[in-house]
Amino acid sequence: MLARARRQGNQVAALFLDLDNFKDINDTLGHEAGDELLAAVATRMAGALRDGETVGRLGGNEFVVLVEGASLGAGAHVVAQRIVNVLATPFSISASDVPLEVTTSIGIAEGDRAITGDLLRDADIALYQAKAAGKHCAVAFSPSMRDEVDHHRNVELDLQHALKNEQYFCCTNPCTNSRPERSGVWKRCCDGAIRNGESSYPVTSSPCSNRLA
What value does the mean pLDDT take over residues 117-142? Predict the structure, then answer.
């Protein structure tokens, strides 16, 4: 796709989609119901495609839409919004008496890359940001997102090294939640000292420190 886009001078984009809270469907209605819903989603998305757009399921509840040419004339966000709109009507499946509402988070990556895998990687990074922003939205990739992912990966590696070499410690601090029903609950917060040459730096409540705790 990228080679063809280069030859023809076309724009190209990848949209990485993840159905929000899909695990709840499998857990409450069963995997057969989840498969039926996925098939219905794929059929509806395929029916909304235009020239220059291709949709495929990557696995689980993840889909990718590849877009090139005229479809990107108004921008990839317009394509993403069209997908959101087409999924807005609830889905009727045999395992549920009530039509199911489906929302999706979308990561967008535009522009040429060395290989198609790089385009998908960047769209996946943007999808992670869409999930972190509260789901049911589309987020476009920016290089700073890749820097953030690399930073978290490096911190996690440093944490693992620090734990192995007994350079990491945990303490329990009181954290007050603003919601009345949870006031006064103690939450485990982790602070560590990671040795990096002669320097050290603290880590507080990061996803990787929480896993190591």
Answer: 91
